[in-house]
Amino acid sequence: MSEQMHPAAPHHLPFFVPGPDGSDTLMVVMGIFLVAVILWVGTLYWKLHSLPERMAHRTHKLQFEIVAVLGLISLFTHMHIFWIAGLLLAMIDLPDFGTPLRSIAGSVERIADAAPGPPLDEEKFENVPAQADGRGATKEAAAKQEVHTHA
Fold first, then answer.
1. If we measure between CA atoms, which residue out of 138, 61, 151 comes closest to residue 109?
2. Does residue 60 surpass a pLDDT of 50?
């Protein structure tokens, strides 16, 4: 008995039809393609998810930590409002109040010529005698001298 092809069968089968050995080339190619696309979409998702944090880090924003925490919260809770809040916070320049206030405090300390400490007792300096240089000592001068002796 010789195997003869059926007269209705095509002489050339398309590539996606599995061969007689059971190997399915199209399934293998589509499996590799599917894994590659899933990895690519996952990478794209992670890049998009970390966009606010990268924006805040690139521009050296003061609120970088807040943006990073909002990104983590949105990642674990799947609530997109935290991601949107982080993105908006990364785009906004918050004014730096700390540096000018530290500068003002340092200047005031230099003007007062005193280190911060407990308030001085007013009764301690009521009977301070006048100086011999003609300017006359006041309670404030005696209090300043008292502060310098503590430091």
1. 151
2. yes
